[in-house]
Specification:
By secondary structure, the protein is α+β, with helices and mostly antiparallel strands. The chain has one domain: Nuclear Transport Factor 2, Chain: A. Helix content is about 30%, strand content about 40%. The protein is built from 4 helices and 6 strands. Strands 2-1-6-5-4-3 form a 6-stranded mixed sheet. Strand 1 and strand 2 form a beta hairpin.
């Protein structure tokens, strides 16, 4: 079966991040994954990603993700995504600031049978903390 990987990539960001549909994670992510760049260590299981996801969705419950560009080569997609949100939750290790953040990410996804098997994420966490007035802090995901 051939999958439209660009459409799957857009669906991922729309449903998981903008709509907050956690069940889409189970539908679209292989149980064993290699997920780089979201924490200090490699995430090897979908449940590790869900821990990160819940922390960010709690901190930024109204987050929106806009896929600005998406390219595909073979079973890989690479995209530039702009995220916007208000910091409303305490899950980053400090009280909610009520400040807005905007940041971009570059994400490469390897798809297998229509599911995310590996992902490399690059985004500016320090830039997010600066926008929140918390640049002396760090965010760690267990």
């Amino acid at each position: 079966m051939t999958h439209d990987l660009k459409a799957l990539t857009r669906k991922w960001f729309d449903e998981v991040w903008t709509q907050g549909r956690e069940q889409t994670i189970d539908e679209m992510v292989a149980p064993e994954i290699d997920c780089h760049g979201l924490s200090d260590s490699l995430m090897k299981h979908v449940d590790h990603f869900k821990t990160f996801y819940r922390m960010y969705r709690t901190a930024f419950p109204d987050i929106t993700a806009s896929v600005e560009e998406c390219i595909q080569e073979g079973e890989m997609t690479a995209c530039r995504v702009t995220f916007r949100a208000l910091h409303k939750g305490d899950s980053l290790g400090f009280p909610a600031t009520g400040k807005s953040v905007t940041f971009e990410a570059i994400i490469m996804i390897e798809w297998r049978h229509g599911k995310v098997a590996r992902a490399h994420n690059q985004f500016d966490q320090l830039g997010i903390l600066r926008q929140l007035g918390q640049e002396t802090r760090s965010v760690t995901v267990a």
